[in-house]
Amino acid sequence: MTTDRAELTKTHAWKNLESHAQKARGLSIRKLFSDDSSRGARMAIEADGIYFDYSKHLVTDETVRLLLQLAEESALRDRIEAMFRGDKINLTEKRAVLHVALRAPKGQSILVDGKDVVPEVHAVLDKMAGFAERVRSGAWKGHTGKRIRSVINIGIGGSDLGPVMAYEALRHYSARDMNFRFVSNVDGTDFAEATHDLSPEETLFIISSKTFTTLETMTNAHTAREWALKGLKDESAVAKHFVAVSTNETEVGKFGIDTANMFGFWDWVGGRYSMDSAIGLSTMIAIGPDNFRSMLNGFHRMDEHFRRAPFDRNLPVIMGLLGIWYNNFFGAQTAAVLPYEQYLKRFPAYLQQLTMESNGKHVTREGQAVNYQTGPIYWGEPGTNGQHSFYQLIHQGTKLIPCDFIGFMEPLNPLGRHHDLLIANVFAQSEALAFGKTVEEVKAEGTPDWLVPHRTFEGNRPSTTILMEKLTPETLGTLVALYEHSVFTQGAIWDIDSFDQWGVELGKALAVRIIPELENKAAGPMKHDSSTNTLIARYVNSKK
Ligand code: F6P
Questions:
Q1: Tell me, what's the pLDDT at 520?
Q2: Which member of 235, 508, 519, 527 is catalytic?
Q3: How far is 406 from 415, CA to CA, in rounded Å?
Q4: Which of 48, 174, 185, 289 has the greatest number of beta carbons closer than 10 A?
Q5: Residue 262: which of 117, 124, 103 has the closest Cα?
Q6: 90 pocket-lining for ligand 1 (C-beta < 6 Å)
Q7: Is the pLDDT of residue 1 over 60?
Q8: In this structure, is the dihedral angle defined by the CA atoms of residues 327, 331, 333 and 339, taken in order, positive or negative?
Q9: In angstroms, what is the span from residue 264 Cα to ligand 1's centroid?
Q10: Is residue 357 annotated as part of the catalytic site, yes or no?
């Protein structure tokens, strides 16, 4: 059943959830568990190498039933099919949204404007693989005949966060005789620190930018060119030390990179969904083409699951719905992502762009103001470090923060008791959040009365535990796709365009106006507000 999309809060499912939430706010996770000894095993889904335990949530079977009803009434199934079919579901940019095509196996067919895009995807993958092999083996030589030892990806947003997250996540599988660095910030420190100990003769720059016009990336790319040519002293060296990843062949040519050294992708790949495209070139050089393909395979497994599994066993759907439950019916403002895996240290930062650039929207796809909350704030850090930093607030603060705990059964670096201690902490934290510690329990420990309130844990704080066997290229792919599709699920229900990002434009345009004012090249007097005018004047004076 399709609803009038501007009327989300008037749907049956939404109204039912609202009245159900009144009662659910009184739920006790302790009681839910004591009333049902099978809850822990029952409220878990196992699929594609992921064990997804959602039993420690403030939900009953009725909650899940109503959330699934919301998914049905929001025509989620149709939306999923529209994406996989290549419909232009990014309405404001009139584009298809086909990151799923980037990991479609050879032989599958996905049409955009009547053209099958899968053969092109594989042609680019093959070209990337050939190049990656040459760089890894040393067959690709720099201008002076030396092999490449350092690869620097220059990009920002989706052209940086995916590559750096994947490199860090899969560092265990990477070529250890090479350096991989990532420059994103227009702050010159980023470039200076990334290159200070490198030789231009042995350095390859990958300029990654979908548009090839992004201010930060182009500024860093020009600085890189100057840095390389200062050492190599010959314009023709650019061909051996610079490659481009972009959809914009014209701009790549203008920059001076031979378009034979360009790896393309397509406008139907959103920046934050691009780590599987040629934007992943640095990842492929780091881990090798076979590992890269197995990462794609992991993504594809989750794509298939999302497309085909019934909603009540569908991991991204259930995950997305649980997020909606807290965001829209419990007033939760944020969600924490807590990987207990040091290699996933950039995963929360990656997810911030994926989730917040996608679902930080204030109007529906048709442009009507929403009268409900959309995307929550995502944040997090690897455990156990976060435990000694912000977990206090999650346990005893006044805010409800649903958490995702992510753990792996098998360590990549087995060292004494480390892994058991790490995993003990995953389980202990979710247990403490859910069940807390009652006044009676605290008193029974002999705690003096005045200290009892401080040592009491309310509990009843929801979390999901995501367990996987081992962090590999394939499991990383599956995990990232789980979040991608959960973001999709939420965007579909909120009826927003999860694939545009107009909110970043105003700041960019204002910066372009301010730059000449800082450089004393502005045509007339400054016309900002009195605060901005004063700040600019202060900076300009300090330069004198
Ligand atoms: O400013 C936001 C954004 O457009 C992101 O969506 C994108 O990932 C990033 O900038 C970088 O864009 P590009 O790859 O075109 O340089």
A1: 85
A2: 508
A3: 20
A4: 48
A5: 124
A6: no
A7: no
A8: negative
A9: 15
A10: yes
Q: Considering only 54-58, 319-323, 329-333, 516-520, which range has the smallest mean pLDDT? A: 516-520
Amino acid at 473: P
Statement: residue 4 has pLDDT above 90:
no
Collect all residues with Cβ–Cβ distance below 8 Å to 45 and sequence separation of at least 6.
51, 52, 54, 313, 315, 318
Query: Which percentage of the chain shows pLDDT scores above 70?
Result: 99
Give distance in angstroms: CA of 357 to centre of ligand 1: 10
Q: Which two structure tokens, joined as six digits, stand for 422?
A: 């790490």
Non-local CB neighbours of 489 within 8 Å, separated by 6+ positions: 71, 76, 316, 317, 319, 320, 321
Residue nearest to atom 3 of ligand 1 (CA): 157
pLDDT confidence bin for 526, thresholds 50/70/90: confident
**What confidence score (pLDDT) does residue 303 get?**
98
Tell me, yes or no, if 443 is annotated catalytic.
Answer: no
Whether 3 has a pLDDT exceeding 50, the answer reads no
Please pick, among 73, 216, 357, 484, the residue that the annotation labels catalytic: 357
Pocket probe for ligand 1: among 487, 501, 502, the residue whose CB has the most ligand atoms within 8 Å is 501
Report the pLDDT averaged over residues 278-305.
Answer: 98
Whether residue 271 has its Cβ less than 6 Å from ligand 1: yes
Helix (H, G, I), strand (E, B) or coil at 251: helix
Q: How many CB atoms lie within 10 A of CB 28?
A: 16
57 is a catalytic site residue: no
Taking each helix axis from N to C end, the angle separating 289-308 and 118-137, rounded to the nearest 10 degrees, works out to 150
Phi/psi for 236 (5° steps) reads: -65, -15
Q: Among all chains, which residue has been given the structure tokens 């790490």?
A: 422
Give the C-alpha separation, 501 to 498, whole Å: 8
Band of pLDDT at residue 521, cut at 50, 70 and 90? confident
| Tokens, residue 271 | 């920046």
Per-residue 3-state assignment (H helix, E strand, C coil) for 272-331 = HHCCCCHHHHHHHHHHCHHHHHHHHHHHHHHHHHHHHCCHHHCHHHHHHHHHHHHHHHCC
Phi-psi sector, 44: left (phi>0), alpha (psi -120 to 50), beta: beta
To the question of pTM greater than 0.85 for the whole model, the response is: yes
Given the residues 106, 388, 454, 543, the one annotated as active site: 388
Per DSSP bridges, beta strands 115-116 and 111-112 are: antiparallel
- Ligand 1 pocket, 301 CB below 6 A? no
Rounded distance from Cα 152 to ligand 1 centre (Å): 18
